[in-house]
Design goal:
Blueprint lengths: L6 H7 L19 H15 L2 E3 L6 E7 L4 H7 L5 E7 L2 E3 L9 H9 L1 H12 L4 H28 L1 H5 L2 H4 L2 H39 L3 H7 L9 H7 L1
Parallel strand pairs: 1-4
Antiparallel strand pairs: 2-3
């Protein structure tokens, strides 16, 4: 029997908001690390603030001042170099729930399931070495996409994470979404490293069994030859 599902797990699916209130720590214990990683990634991207491009809800003004020497200000009589700069408080898209700018993180999350499927089929089916070799390619490609996904979300949420929450009121959502995706990327990379070990071990064992008997004898150490003392003396 699997572990019981906590009540707040079920309430997340009946929430009126589109962003589920589920974190990595509330997942059932019957899930494997790969499923937990995908769920964390989906949840993190869902809770990130989004808006329709051009709407006032997408931006906030930050009062920014440039560094100027006091002597230069007195000599020129100019202002202190302060101005209001437009910053992003949410991720722009075609509507309030779109995620066009999250295409790379979404693609990385979807591709992470392909190596697991290929490794499972390759170890289950006989003579399926091409599947395992393909899984290695997807493992390397998906690891790169996960890193690019982390960088994409880091750039998209930089303003709302590093500027004070009193400027935009989206600090918690930006921090939680970004941290969840980082946790998901780490979990998925560790799970894929485990898949890589399984794939390499299975392929090498299978290839060793496919070696011809005489080739296997060459790879093994030769047996010592015992010569009787009498025969050695007669040969002399």
């Amino acid at each position: 029997m699997g572990c019981p599902v906590p009540p707040h797990w079920l309430s997340a699916f009946h929430s009126t908001t589109l962003a589920p209130r589920v974190s990595c720590r509330t997942t059932p214990c019957s899930l494997n690390p790969h499923q937990v990683g995908m769920m964390c990634a989906i949840t993190g991207m869902a809770i990130l603030p989004k808006c329709r491009w051009g709407e006032p809800e997408c931006y906030f003004l930050a009062h920014t001042c440039a560094y100027t020497k006091a002597t230069d200000t007195v000599a020129t009589g100019e202002s202190d170099g302060c101005m209001n700069v437009l910053k992003f408080r949410a991720i722009e898209g075609s509507n309030d729930y779109s995620a066009e700018q999250l295409a790379i993180p979404i693609l990385a999350t979807c591709l992470s399931s392909i190596p697991a499927i290929l490794t499972f089929l390759g170890t289950l089916l006989d003579k399926a070495l091409p599947l395992l070799e393909s899984a290695k390619i997807f493992l390397a490609m998906n690891t790169v996409f996960l890193v690019l996904g982390v960088r994409a979300i880091q750039d998209l949420t930089f303003d709302c994470r590093w500027w004070g929450n009193w400027h935009h009121d989206n600090g918690k959502a930006c921090h939680d979404g970004f941290n969840l995706y980082i946790a998901a990327a780490i979990i998925l990379v560790v799970a894929q490293l485990a898949l890589l070990v399984i794939s390499v071990r299975f392929v090498e064992d299978h290839r060793y069994m496919m070696v011809q008997p005489h080739e296997a004898a060459k790879l093994s150490a030769p047996e010592p030859i015992d010569i009787d003392d009498d025969e050695s003396m007669t040969n002399l």
